[in-house]
Amino acid sequence: MGFSMPRSNWPLLTGRTRPLKMKEWGDLAIMDPDAGTQPHGRGLLAAGKDWLHIDAGSALENPVVTLYAGADPGTESGWEEVEEATMVSTTGFLALCDSGYEPVRKENLATAGTGPYLIRVHASDRSTDGKRPRFLIQIIPGDRTGAEDDLAAPMIEEAAGPLLIRTSFTQPDQWARLLEALAGSSEHYESITVIDNPLYAGFTADRLQQRIGRDEEGWPHSTLLLIADEQTLASTERPLLAVNNLPDEDDSPFRITLAAAGSLVVNMELGNTSFGDWAPGADADGVYRKKHY
């Protein structure tokens, strides 16, 4: 980007709040301006490696932004919108930037260095004519347990269809049998890309979703994840954890047997069903077993 700023003498925010009046209007970002990334996305929040994009709305008034960095102070009431997302800082530096990716204040918001951060954004009057949009942005260090693994694990950007991701590496024989069953199944599994990388060992669904690549508009390359975890490989039915990775949808994950997963994949790809149509069909033990192509 051709932009560099000294960092060694930038003070840290430690739980202080700062009201900010922007000189230039446009979307906002919490990012490292030297990381070479360009924030983008749909909805109020969209996150990627070293950046989080905030849709500032359509109001023409300059916004007032209050920043908080430190331990979680909790959600404030009285705001029209409150959303949160997790991002990972690989450089240990984050700043509030304008729509041109230029810092508007020189505080380092990454108070805990490299690792995950929970960004909670409160907003009001984003698209109200004649009113000044207001934002409260809280930057909260996330759980550092597994943070080094998150930083080491690569982004999954090469696949554009459903993913089968292995997260358990203690049962190699069972994994080999799962792959054999997949290879011997019908053409309904052909669109699945297998991700077999020990760097994802023990990853939860949320952590995997943070590693899925996105296009310039913030749309994930893969919208359906099938996770082969320890529970999957411990059962002869191989109940995969199915995860909806579509933006702005909050369907809960559910288990589905490998034998039935092809039915899920083909009907989702054809648009015959939505993800939320499937979980109610699970048996009493929480596993979906029906096949209907």
TrEMBL record:
InterPro entries according to UniProt: DUF6924
Top-level division of the source organism's lineage: Bacteria
Domain DUF6924, residue spans: 162-290
Pfam families: DUF6924
Protein name as catalogued: DUF6924 domain-containing protein
Organism lineage string: Bacteria, Bacillati, Actinomycetota, Actinomycetes, Kitasatosporales
